[in-house]
Structure formats: structure tokens, C-alpha cells
Amino acid sequence: MPPEKKIMFQARLQRRLHELDIHSFEEYAKTLLSSGDDSPEFSILADYISTNKTEFFRENDHFRFMSANFLPEFFSGISDSRPQKLTVWSAGCSSGQEAYSIAITLEDFMRMRGIRFDYSILATDISGRMLKTVKEAIYPQAQADEIPMETKRRYFLKSKSMKDPKIRIVKELRNKIKPVYLNLMDHSYSLNVQYDVIFLRNTLIYFDHTVQQMVLTKVLNNLQTGGYLFIGHSESLINMNLPIRSIAPSVYVKTKTESL
């Protein structure tokens, strides 16, 4: 976390100190570090300092690109006798709206094309609280206000509460999402899958250039050659030595197979 984030860090962590009746950051640090690497407090700390901004179909042109460009190309050779499985990784998934937006995009593509294929979506985040929300897939109803009614009828369940209306993603889509804890700053990632698509959006902006290069190198080691990487529109990969080429705004293709 860069020095300019210190004030934000302090403001968020102050609430945790109050809950624990701890009166200084020094005292909290001693408590945290003396409890061992497997202390649940580390996960709680991550929850407090993580920025969990997200929404359904955020930066929607990426989902349109998948429907109009990537999916037709990827499944151009699909047949009933040789089904293909699409693997997607939503890294830094926050509360899961991105992962479920991907699933809806895939389902709509199959429905419009009259085909069926298997797919799975890995949703990783550093926040245990966010991953719990991904699994439950329950959100305030207002978060779906901008989604077309036909889409909501097909993929969302609506609560009966008028006081606190909620929506929930249908079970068929929930079963396609696998929420898993993963810290992008770890030395290596315990992933044994080469993904066809990786969404790493609006996460790199919190890292400096050196850390961005390190994270992207590890992420790309888990992307198939010819696979697609999506980053946030406010992020840039200029002056980075990576095996990718740009094919659309914030969309890249992996270009070689060597381990990085």
C-alpha cells in the first residue's frame, strides 16, 4: 500500500481499533503480529482496508466485446460431439457482480446462438466478507435498477420485502461461480488451471509500477496462449514487458507460451 493511502488506511482501521477497545495503532500491530500468521485477524484487517467498489456490468463494453468478438471466435468450431469448456477467472472480484455479469453474458450468448457449452468462473478476492457475499449472491434490489427487465426476470430472484428489497442470482448461475480466497501479492498462486479469460479490472491501480509488473506476470502464467485479459479502463500497461498484445481498449491477448 503506497504512502499516499495512509490516511485512508488509518480512517478505515480506526473502526476496528474501537471494536477491540485498542487505543493505538502500535498496540494493534503488536496484537496482530504476535498472534501468528494464521490469525483470523489478518482476514478481518483485509476486509477493513479493501476497496470493494463494483456493480453489475461495470464498464459494459467489455461484456459487449465478449458477446460480439471473443465468444463467436472461441466457439466457432464447437459441435455437439466435441463440447468445449470455457474457463474464466475474475480476479479481485469484490462482492461478485463482475463474476455474475460474466455468467449472464455467457448464458445470453448461448441462448441467442442456440448452443450449449460448459463453463466455470473462479472468483477470487482477499476479503472473506466479500467472498461470502459472492457465494450467497444476495444484493440490494437497487443494484439491478439499470439491468433490462428481461434479464432480471431470467437471472434474478426478487424478495418479497418492501422495507428492504433484495435480489438473488438464480441457482443455476450460482453453481457456476467458485469463490476462493487469493491474495495477488502472494509469492505464487495455487491455481492449477490455464484460464481462457481473465478479468483483472480496477485492481492494478492500487499498485505501483513494479508491483503491477509482478502481479501481471503471475496472472498471465495462468492464462492460455491466445487467451484474453481484461483490465480496467483507467489502468495502463505501457512500458511493461509482458507477452500480450492489445486488440481493443483495455483488452489484450496472450501471445506466447513460455513460463514467465
In angstroms, what is the radius of gyration? Answer: 20 Å
3D shape = globular
Class of the largest domain in CATH? Answer: Alpha Beta
H/E topology pattern:
HHHHEHEHEHEEHEEHEEE
What is the mean pLDDT?
89
> How many domains comprise the coordinates?
2
Strand order of the largest sheet: 6-2-1-7-8-10-9
Label the structural class. alpha/beta
Structure, briefly:
The chain is an alpha/beta fold.
Task: Itemize the secondary structure elements and their pairings.
Blueprint: H1 6-20, H2 25-34, H3 40-49, H4 61-74, E1 85-91, H5 97-113, E2 118-125, H6 128-136, E3 138-140, H7 149-155, E4 156-158, E5 166-169, H8 171-174, E6 177-181, E7 195-200, H9 209-220, E8 223-231, E9 244-248, E10 251-254
Parallel strand pairs: 1-2, 1-7, 2-6, 7-8
Antiparallel strand pairs: 3-5, 4-5, 8-10, 9-10
Helix pairs in contact: 4-5
Task: Explain what this protein looks like in three dimensions.
The chain is an alpha/beta fold. It has two domains: 3-49, no CATH class; 61-254, Vaccinia Virus protein VP39 (Rossmann fold), CATH 3.40.50.150. Helices cover 38% and strands 21% of the residues. It is built from nine helices and ten strands. Strands 6-2-1-7-8-10-9 form a seven-stranded mixed sheet. It has a three-stranded antiparallel sheet with strand order 3-5-4. Helix 5 (97-113) links the parallel strand 1 (85-91) and strand 2. Helix 4 crosses helix 5 (97-113). The model has no long low-confidence stretch (mean pLDDT 89).
